[in-house]
Amino acid sequence: QLQLVESGGGLVQPGGSLRLSCAASGFTLDYYVIGWFRQAPGKEREGVSCISRSGGSTNYADSVKGRFTISRDNAKNTVYLQMNSLKPEDTAVYYCAAVFGDVCTSEWKYRYWGQGTQVTVSS
Predict the structure, then answer these.
(1) CA-to-CA distance for 115 and 1, rounded, in angstroms?
(2) Closest by Cα among 56, 47, 31, 28 to 94
(3) Strand, helix or coil at 39?
(4) Do the Cβ atoms of 9 and 17 come closer than 8 Å?
(5) Is-contact 12 120, C-beta < 8 A?
(6) In the 8-state DSSP scheme, what is residue 76?
(7) pLDDT of 10-54, one tens digit each?
(8) CA torsion sign, 107 to 36 to 114 to 41?
């Protein structure tokens, strides 16, 4: 069974850091573009970041540029999202998703989704 599992969420104070992980089982991430998305209460899901299959290209939402870093370790079949200088407005459920291909693409094309991990930024 093809699965993505996110981990690393939690409660953190403003200005703090978290590292989210997205681990794949049942398939190898080598051939997939990986995206991170988030959904805050009462809001639509939005794209946060994505990384190309090779890892050579990354995209970030304007709201997280300079604070978040996406990376991948294909040997571990895992993609990471390092989140620094967290703000209360970063509070959301974070999802990773995978799409077969080379470069970042539209959200609707992502085929495999994880169940999400809660990130709460609050003092």
Answers:
(1) 14
(2) 47
(3) strand
(4) no
(5) yes
(6) G
(7) 999 999 999 999 999 988 999 999 999 999 999 999 999 999 999
(8) negative
Say how many Å lie between the first and final Cα of the chain, rounded: 39
Residue with tokens 């794209």: 47
Residue that has been written with the tokens 């988030």 in this structure: 38
Span 87-122, pLDDT tens digits: 999 999 999 999 999 999 999 999 999 999 999 999
CB atoms within 10 A of CB 47: 18
Could you tell me which of 100, 17, 106, 31 has the C-alpha nearest to residue 64?
17
Question: What is the spatial distance between Cα 2 and Cα 84, in angstroms, rounded to a whole number?
Answer: 30
Q: Determine whether 1 is exposed, middle or buried from the number of CB atoms within 10 Å of its CB (0-12, 13-18, 19+).
A: exposed
Amino acid at 12: V
- In this structure, the number of other CB atoms found within 10 A of the CB of residue 52 comes to 18
Reduced to 3 states (helix: H, G, I; strand: E, B; else coil), residue 88 is: helix
